Amino acid sequence: MRKLTYYVATTLDGFVADPAGGFDFFPVEGDHMGYLLREFPETFPVHTRGPLGIEGPPKHFDAVVMGRRTWEPARAAGLTSAYPHLRQYVFTTTMTQAPDETVTLVATDPLEYVRDLKRQEGLGIWLCGGGSLAGALLPEIDELVLKVNPIVVGDGIPLFRRGFEPHRFTRLETKTFDSGVTVCRFASGVSFGRP
């Protein structure tokens, strides 16, 4: 079965974007970037792949799922398909037609849809964001890869938006960089409310 990995940048206080959904306050320079390029090359959008010298097949993921608000910044910048090298699924109830044939709009239950994706053949599935979709998909997240940035913002879109329901994760790996960014990998455990 395929794994669902929530791979995302976060602040020290647990926000993945500003209140409007922007994330340009996260640093894109520093020694952590070389690691991310080598380890997660498929997570870089199409307009950066050529300049960064990224080529070849995906390493971890062949599909990406995201909420509409996560997709909007790329679309507003004129990228109707930010990840054409991946199968892209955008969860939205407000859009009915995708502006690009490489993007699939999904209006059904995210949890059931992703469970079906996980049963299909292929590499892993990257959960790109945002907080509401991550909250809905929490029971199906197999791994967290958090790029923890040395920033506190005080408000914004949280890592997870969900009612109080603790889930345990086991730390697999932590890499710390001179840039101040720490990349932490966790494997899913069991929610405290489950047998």
Automatic annotation (TrEMBL):
Enzyme Commission no: 1.5.1.3
Gene3D superfamilies, per the entry: Dihydrofolate Reductase, subunit A
Pfam families in UniProt: RibD_C
GO molecular function per UniProt: dihydrofolate reductase activity
Domain Bacterial bifunctional deaminase-reductase C-terminal stretches: 84-182
Coiled coil regions, renumbered to chain: none
Phosphoprotein listed as a keyword: no
Entries under InterPro entries matching the protein: DHFR-like_dom_sf (IPR024072), RibDG_C (IPR002734), Riboflavin_Biosynth_HTPR (IPR050765)
Assigned keywords, A-Z: Oxidoreductase
UniProt cross-references to PANTHER family, sorted A to Z: 2,5-DIAMINO-6-RIBOSYLAMINO-4(3H)-PYRIMIDINONE 5'-PHOSPHATE REDUCTASE, DIHYDROFOLATE REDUCTASE FAMILY PROTEIN (AFU_ORTHOLOGUE AFUA_8G06820)
Protein name, per record: Dihydrofolate reductase
Native source organism of the sequence: Rhodococcus aetherivorans
Organism classification: Bacteria, Bacillati, Actinomycetota, Actinomycetes, Mycobacteriales
